[in-house]
Every structure is written in C-alpha cells, then in structure tokens.
Automatic annotation (TrEMBL):
Belongs to the peptidase M49 family. Zn(2+) binds at residues 440, 445, 497. Its cofactor is Zn(2+). Gene3D superfamilies: 3.30.540.30. This is Dipeptidyl peptidase 3. It comes from Timema monikensis. Binds 1 zinc ion per subunit. Keywords: Acetylation, Aminopeptidase, Cytoplasm, Hydrolase, Metal-binding, Metalloprotease, Protease, Zinc. The active site is at residue 441. InterPro entries: Dipeptidyl-peptase3 (IPR005317), Peptidase_M49 (IPR039461). It is found in: Cytoplasm. The keyword Metal-binding applies.
C-alpha cells in the first residue's frame, strides 16, 4: 500500500444506524415538535461547517446535492450500468458521498485528514455527465466540475491535512495568515475583552498596510462591531455577517422551536441564541448557556453554536454543531448517583484542595439517545459549555451519548492483542467505555480550579498558596481577560483531553465507583482491566493514524492525548506494559500486566496527573511553557529505540479499520404530527438522509453555499 492509498475510502466502509426509535416514541407530540424544529436548526446551521472545512467543500456539497436531488439513486445506478459503468465504481462514489456528508466536508472530522474518491477521475466524470442533473443544467454542472475536480483528488503535502496555511488547509484563517498573526490577533481580542469562538480571520494586505478583519457569524452585516483601529502596527476591524443566510435559517427554526418549549428556561435560552446568531454577540450565547445549565433534567436536551475549537489550528475558533437528544432514564440514574458522590470522589484525585474549585457546582449528568447531531462528527460524551467563567463560577452539564457508544463499537476490530485480551475487549469494551466517559466528563473536565487575577485581586490566596513543585509562591496565573483557550491555544484541547482521560483511568481503580454502574466483584476487576487495556490498545492501533510524519503534526486532540498516556505507561516500566514487534513490518503485540495496574499503573498515572503534562497545576496556574515542554516530550513519535512508533505506524495503518459513520434518522411533519424516518445503514441510506434534510428549504442549500463561497473565495 502506498502512502497516498490511505486517503482513499474502501467500498466496504462501515456504517451503523444510530437507533433512537424507542426514545422518540416515548415523547409527547409537543416534545416531538420541539425536537423537530431544533433538529432543523442544527442541520441547516451545519451548512456553515462546509465553509469552515476547506475551500472546495461547499462546491463538492453543491455538486453532490444537485446530482442526488434530481433523481433517485437506483435510477442513476440503472442508467450507468446500462452504459457499462462498473458497479464497484458506483459504490465508490456512494461511499465517498456518504463519508463527505457525514464529515461535513472532505476532511475527516476525527483526524483532520483528507479523503478522496476511490474511483478514477474520468469515471467520476462519466457518472456526472450521465446524471439528470447534468442534463438539466449542463453549463452549471460543468462549471462546478471544472472547479472541484482538481482539489477533489489532489494530495499535495499541504492538502493532506488541516493546519495553519503553511502546513495544511484551513478556512478559519485566510491563506496568508501565519501562526504569528493569530498570536497578534489573540492579543487584540484580549485587549477588547472578546473571544474568537464565533469568528473567522481574514488578513488583507494593501499598499504595504496589513489589516485584519475579524468576522462574527451573524445575520446582520452592519454596522461594524469595532470600527477600524490600530494595534501593534497593524489595523484591525471587527465585522459581522459571516454565514448570514445560514444564520437566518437557523434563527427561524429556533423561533419555531420556542413555540413548543417546555418552560421559561428553554424559552429564554432560545431567545438568547436567536440574539447571538442575529447580532454575532458571544455574550448572548453565554447568556443562553446560563439558562441551559439552569434547565435541570429536561426531557429533550439540546445545545447549538460554535462550540469545539479542535479544528482551528490556533485552537480558538469554534466549529458549528448542534444536537438534539432524548434522555435515557436508566443510565441517567447511574450518572446521577455519580454526581451525588462527586464532591467526595474529587478528594481522591492527586492534588490538594487548594487546586480544586471552592465550591463544587453540581451539574446535570444525563445519558442521552441522540436524535440529531450535526457537525463533523459525533462524540461519545460532552462537557459543556466551554466558557471558563461559566464553568468555574456557575456550572456546566455533562452528557453521555448513550446510543452512540454501542453503535461506534459494534464489531470493533482488535489487532495486536492475544486472543484472551481480544475476547475481554469484545465483551467489556462498551461498559468499560461508559464508565470512562462518565469519569472523563464529570470528574475530568469538571474538576480543577483555575488561578485567576481579578479586577480587585485574585481568586486564590496569593500569599499563602505554594506551588507544589517549587514550594514558592504562585507566580503564573490567568491575567484579566485571559482564558484557558486563549492562552493554551493549539495545545489546549489535547492537553485537557489527556487530563480528563487520566482522571478516568485513575478513578476507575476504585471499585466503589465502578459499582455505581452496576458492576461488582470479578466483573469489576475485568472491567477495570478492559478500560486500561482499551486505552493502550487505541494508543497503538488507532492514534498513530492521526499523526503526520512529514510535518510531525498531531491532527487529532484525543488521539494525541491517548498516545501520550501510552508513552507515560511505557516509561513507568516495572513490567506494566510492553509493546513488541513480533513479525517484522507486519505485526505487534501489546501486553498489559493486569496485576500491576493498581500499583505501577496507578502511581504512573497519579504522578502524571500531578506533576507532568496533564498536571492540573500547569493548567491551574497558566504555566504554559512548563506544560508545553512536558507534553511535547511524550507526544514525540520516535524513529528508533525500544518503541519506534514512527516505523510501527505503517503496521498500524495496514491493520486499521475506518471509523464508522452513523446514519441518523430525520423527523417529518405531517398534519401537525411529527414522525421519525429511518434509513438503512448503507451508503445509499446515508446519502438519502442528507438529501432529505435539505428539501423544502426556501433556497436550495447549494445556492446558499455557492454564493457564500464566491464572496470569500479569493481569501482561500
């Protein structure tokens, strides 16, 4: 297999249905109407993600939706087969289309690497020219094809991954932006008390004068939020109106959803969200989030906006996402027990009380069956909102996406393990992951105090609290206007994910915690082992796929975090963990000694949590340089030595199985009643589900995206 082959998609790409019928049927029609309009808001708002992902993604979306909207898939297939077109090539086209829609663009949502069609470009052209869409609009389709066929297949080194413009592709920053520019812009935003979540950055150089346009997502396009101003030798302007027609659709659906809200919290939340998406105000979205965390135990759970910063190379700008889900009561009861014990469980973590929040803000923690999740992928759990001042002082929510976990792990492949270990993972991977997600979200992301300077002093005793490593007074802290994301930038996501994963590994060693999930005795012992084994197995078998050797870049925050944990456990020694090459160039063997997990393993993870790169101390005290030095040491991928993971990456890639895509249902209204429309777990099913999502829009989504693409194409 050549290096470039990994970017093609196999015809047997795994697809699983995200099942939610039982949970949906339990809703009243009022609740179904609320869920229906929130789902429309999420899906239609997610058109923005194609504009965030790559320059060609909006045009590919337009091309595909035109083809599939003009005739049924089976009719297109029949016409092609009559002409002698290969059935394998047609399947390859459907697979590409289904993966493209599921990732909201032509880069993987998990891993940020490009994928290309697994059929020759000339055959794809034959397919397109056979379609009814081409025959009804030949000039429009030819124009689209001329613009996309190059970037659709191109795999230059820069195009293989998302990153800063000198190393990869991004549409969060214009193509002439540098890493240094983002630091300068960050300083400007900080000086104005702003954050970058709902922005994109455009650098304009004219007559040797540099101007940075920071553009907010909003319906409104004027007036400027901050008129042109000078800052550190450059000009800055904060405008609004990014994705304007998309935001208009989103706001309309939120208004409809508000008519069916269950209480004032939901109504006020949606009011604030409408204001945010209309004006570009991030403060309004924060106010909506405040109402959201006050809305305890809702039947329909939802969150929407520019949320996660993983894909912005600077780690500051959020990708649009929206989800709608129904509460899974039996699993939620287990999580509520965990929440009720959380304050006492936090004392078991390896840091002193000064580094924990003054008051634990008891959050909602629910297990949800997802109805709709838009964006570039579906996580297994979420801890939100991401706004530091709300999380630290007012609270947050944890959600475990209960129907995602079994779907994602269905028929999971486990190379590099003994048959005995493989059997253990097959039996216990899902319940172990449910425990890990619970601990990761609630006590990982939910733990820890951040030491901040305030307008009238500090939120900690600056005279008394000592740095646990130096014994001296705390000398680094978050200055007024600084946040974790603004300071830690591109390191922030992976660093925090690593900390949360370590908390899960550390606390699952306590059997009374595992018993909360209904697992006792030997089964609890086996589950703990399965959780640790799963972590190191993923670190070897899956994470290396998301490392780019040519640029030495990690492309996915969770993958980097899990690989770092693997390196920490290998360094611990003591016979805890071994990874060996058993068949040169072909096979590896991972051996984890379960008897040493409670001793060697616990000490390694405990010390790591306290002293090394996942250390709360570095995050708490804003000690970026120490955190970076520690973390990057473990994130290195060595070419040689006892564990040459750079060489072993090829072995891992040869054994890899693609990450499953999940086919989601749609809601349909008929005579005031809402029904669920399900789709088969096939490429055809995925494609049809996306085509159905965008029918009956006042303007076809391809028209919206092409217009927005045209406005900014010169920047990318």
């Amino acid at each position: 297999m050549s290096e470039d082959d990994q970017y093609s998609l196999p015809n047997d790409y795994p697809i699983v249905e995200l099942e939610c019928q039982v949970a949906f049927d339990a809703l009243s029609n009022k609740q179904k109407l609320y869920a229906h309009y929130l789902s429309l808001a999420s899906w239609h708002g997610s058109l923005a993600v194609y504009l965030q992902t790559s320059p060609e993604s909006p045009l590919i979306f337009s091309l595909l939706t035109k083809v599939f909207s003009n005739e049924p898939i089976d009719e297109l297939k029949k016409a092609l087969l009559i002409k002698g077109f290969s059935e394998d090539n047609f399947t390859a086209f459907l697979v590409y289309s289904s993966v493209f829609f599921s990732n909201s663009g032509n880069y993987k949502g998990f891993g940020d690497t490009k994928f290309v069609p697994n059929l020759p470009v000339d055959q794809l052209e034959v397919l397109l020219k056979t379609s009814k869409a081409w025959n009804s609009e030949p000039e429009a389709l030819q124009s689209l094809w001329d613009r996309v066929k190059g970037p659709l297949y191109s795999l230059s080194e820069r195009e293989k991954q998302l990153s800063y413009p000198d190393k990869g592709i991004t549409c969060y920053l214009s193509k002439n932006c540098t890493k240094e520019d983002t630091v300068l812009v960050n300083d400007f935003l900080k000086s104005k008390g702003l954050e970058a979540y709902n922005t994109r950055l455009f650098k304009i150089v004219k007559n040797n004068v540099t101007k940075f346009e920071i553009r907010l997502a909003a319906i409104e396009t004027s007036p400027d939020v901050i008129p042109e101003a000078d800052f550190k030798g450059s000009k800055f302007v904060v405008t609004k109106g990014d994705y304007s027609p998309i935001m208009k659709l989103l706001v309309q659906h939120l208004g409809k959803a508000k008519e069916h809200a269950a209480n004032d919290f939901e109504k006020k939340m949606l009011d604030h969200y409408q204001t945010s998406f209309t004006t570009g105000s991030l403060d309004a979205h924060k106010d909506g989030s405040r109402q959201w965390i006050k809305n305890k135990d809702p039947i329909i759970e939802t969150y929407i906006g520019f949320i996660e910063t993983y894909r912005d190379p600077a780690g500051s700008r959020g990708e649009f996402e929206g989800f709608v889900a129904m509460v899974n009561k039996p699993m939620s009861e287990k999580f509520n027990t965990l929440v009720n014990k959380a304050e006492s469980l936090l004392t078991r973590l390896p840091w002193t009380k000064e580094f924990e929040k003054d008051t634990f803000l008891q959050p909602d923690f629910t297990s949800l069956d997802v109805l709709s999740f838009s964006g570039s992928g579906i996580p297994a759990g979420i801890n939100i909102p991401n706004y530091d001042e709300i999380r630290q002082n007012e609270g947050f929510k944890n959600v475990s996406l209960g129907n995602v976990i079994p779907a994602a792990y269905k028929d999971a492949k486990t190379p590099f393990l003994t048959q005995e270990d493989s059997n253990i993972l097959e039996k216990l991977r899902i319940p172990a992951f449910e425990v890990q997600v619970g601990l990761h979200e609630l006590l990982g992301h939910g733990s820890g105090k951040m030491f901040c300077q305030t307008n009238d002093g500090f939120n900690f005793d600056a005279d008394e609290i000592k740095h646990p490593f130096t014994g001296r007074k705390i000398s680094t802290f978050y200055k007024v206007g600084e946040t974790y994301d603004s300071l830690f930038t591109s390191l922030g996501s992976t660093y925090e994910e690593c900390r949360a994963e370590c908390v899960g590994l550390f606390l699952c060693l306590h059997k009374d915690i595992v018993e909360i999930f209904g697992v006792k005795g030997q089964d609890a012992e086996d589950l703990i082992y399965a959780n640790w084994l799963s972590m190191v197995h993923v670190g070897v078998a899956k994470c290396l796929e998301n490392y780019q050797p040519s640029s030495k870049l990690w492309l996915q925050a969770h993958s980097q975090a899990r690989y770092v944990i693997l390196r920490v456990l290998l360094e611990a020694g003591g016979g805890l963990l071994e990874v060996k090459e058993t068949d040169p160039g072909k096979d590896l063997l991972i051996t984890l000694d379960r008897t040493k997990i409670p001793t060697v393993g616990k000490k390694a993870i405990g010390d790591f949590l306290h002293k090394l790169q996942a250390s709360l101390v570095y995050k708490a005290t804003a000690d970026l340089e120490s955190a970076k030095n520690m973390y990057n040491k473990y994130a290195e991928v060595p070419e040689d030595g006892p564990h040459p993971f750079a060489k072993w990456r090829a072995i891992a890639l040869a054994q890899k199985k693609p990450r499953k895509i999940l086919v989601q249902a749609n809601t349909k209204e008929d005579g005031g009643k809402i029904y669920l429309k399900r789709y088969p777990p096939t490429p055809e099913g995925v494609v049809q589900s996306y085509i159905d999502r965008f029918t009956n829009m006042p303007t076809h989504p391809s028209v919206l995206l092409e217009e927005l693409w045209k406005m900014d194409k010169d920047h990318f």
